[in-house]
């Protein structure tokens, strides 16, 4: 997958993520672990949105979205064709439209039943980390 096609695919994933976002969202965060099972990509995913609730910050997980899942799986397959199949994709999307991706190539830990700080542990504490960085009340 050439760099331009990869960037377009990542942008499509970020755009779909935004389409699913709740009202008042400030940041969306996703972590997908990819494994190949019987020749097909299988994704273990955790997604979270940080939301401005007016008097406090809130956070919640997203439900399954087939279109988002398919876009992430297509990115994995496309990169595999170029010999760059990732095992972990991290994506953060901010309200201002900025987004960041990081690809990992080691064994996917959560999928193997080993919760780690980088994936599941980070999500369990994400709201606390956000509040520590942005204060307890939005806009202050």
Folded structure, characterized:
- This protein has helices at residues 3-20, 66-81, 117-124, 126-134, and strands spanning 25-37, 40-52, 57-61, 88-94, 99-104.
- It is of the alpha+beta class.
- A five-stranded antiparallel sheet has the order 3-2-1-4-5, sandwiched between helices.
- α1 runs antiparallel to α2 (66-81).
- The model has no long low-confidence stretch (mean pLDDT 91).
Question: Topology of this structure?
Answer:
Blueprint: H1 3-20, E1 25-37, E2 40-52, E3 57-61, H2 66-81, E4 88-94, E5 99-104, H3 117-124, H4 126-134
Helix pairs in contact: 1-2
Q: Give the topology string: H per helix, E per strand.
A: HEEEHEEHH
> How are the strands ordered across the major sheet?
3-2-1-4-5
Question: Approximately how much beta-strand content do the residues carry?
Answer: 25-35%
What is the β-strand count?
A: 5
Shape: globular
Mean pLDDT: 91
Number of distinct helices? 4
The gyration radius over C-alpha positions equals: 15 Å
Quick rundown:
The protein has 140 residues and is α+β, with helices and mostly antiparallel strands. The protein has 4 helices and 5 strands; from the N terminus they run H-E-E-E-H-E-E-H-H. The longest helix has 18 residues, at 3-20.
């Amino acid at each position: 997958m050439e760099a331009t096609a990869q960037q377009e695919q990542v942008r499509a994933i970020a755009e779909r993520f935004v389409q699913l976002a709740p009202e008042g969202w400030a940041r969306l965060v996703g972590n997908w672990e990819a494994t190949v099972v019987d020749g097909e990509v299988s994704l273990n995913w955790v997604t979270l949105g940080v939301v401005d609730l007016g008097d406090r910050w809130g956070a919640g997980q997203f439900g399954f979205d087939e279109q988002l899942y398919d876009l992430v799986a297509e990115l994995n397959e496309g990169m595999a064709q170029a010999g760059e199949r990732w095992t972990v994709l991290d994506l953060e999307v901010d309200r201002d439209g900025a987004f960041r991706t990081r690809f990992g190539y080691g064994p996917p830990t959560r999928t193997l039943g080993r919760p780690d700080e980088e994936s599941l542990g980070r999500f369990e504490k994400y709201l606390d980390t956000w509040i520590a960085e942005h204060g307890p009340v939005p806009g202050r």
